[in-house]
Specification:
Structural class: mainly alpha
Number of strands: 0
Radius of gyration: 33 Å
Number of domains: 1
Shape: rod-shaped
Strand content: under 5%
Distance between the termini: 64 Å
Length: 233
């Protein structure tokens, strides 16, 4: 009878060994999953900290271009209004120079987006647990493309405008502390509809750029808040 029970004992032993091996494998897999999850969370944390650092620098740049676009559109608008009402007496000396030259300026933002570009290049967007963060980052390239589009338009308008007004100024007059506008050409310049057309396009473009820059600053402010919330968990 002892010999008859021996196969059953062996079977029970073998089954027990298999169960132990399976349990061991499951535990090992779970530990591995925990380790992988911990590594992913650490990578996510590093990305969040890096993005936050880039946001802080980008916000300073955004404030600069917001102020620049506001100043450019304001100069163009002021000059348009004075020309429209023939207030030529108010456009004397350096006042005219300041408005003319400020309206012809433009600026391009330098975004600190190295971390975001790395996320796109490595396809790591899914590493972020917060859907709100993923949503903001997923629209990044589209928003930057829109900004660059209007910056290109601004640069083009500035170049055309400055090519136009160069026909009416003489920079060497600054050495005599005089307005750069050539006196004999001043009236022609102020009466020229082409000047107002240039100024109108510059005003409209920089007004829109100001809105885009301001909107982007607001989006990055929201992203920074979300990052702080996730880092504090």
């Amino acid at each position: 009878m002892a010999d008859d029970n021996r196969p059953l004992k062996y079977a029970r032993y073998a089954i027990g060994e298999i169960i132990l091996v399976v349990i061991g494998i499951l535990i090992a897999l779970q530990i591995n999953n925990w380790n992988e999850e911990r590594k992913l969370k650490e990578i996510e944390k590093q990305y969040l900290m890096s993005i936050k650092s880039g946001i802080n620098l980008s916000q300073k740049e955004l404030m600069r271009v917001i102020d620049d676009s506001k100043e450019i559109s304001k100069s163009a608008d002021t000059l348009i209004m004075l020309l429209a009402y023939d207030e030529f007496d108010l456009l004397e000396g350096m006042v005219l120079d300041s408005l003319l030259f400020n309206a012809g300026d433009y600026s391009i933002i330098s975004m600190n987006d190295a971390s975001i570009q790395e996320i796109y290049n490595t396809g790591s967007l899914d590493i972020f647990q917060d859907e709100r963060i993923r949503k903001i980052l997923s629209s990044w390239t589209e928003r930057i493309h829109q900004i660059r589009k209007f910056e290109g338009e601004s640069e083009y308008l500035s170049r055309r405008y400055n090519e136009y007004i160069i026909n009416f100024i003489d920079i060497s007059r600054y050495e005599l502390r005089l307005s750069a506008v050539i006196p004999e050409k001043r009236k022609e310049l102020l009466k020229d509809p082409l000047l107002r057309n240039h100024l109108g396009r510059i005003y409209g473009t920089h007004q829109h750029m100001n809105q885009i820059y301001t909107a982007e600053k607001s989006i990055l402010d929201s992203l920074r808040i979300l990052i702080d919330q996730n880092l504090s968990k």
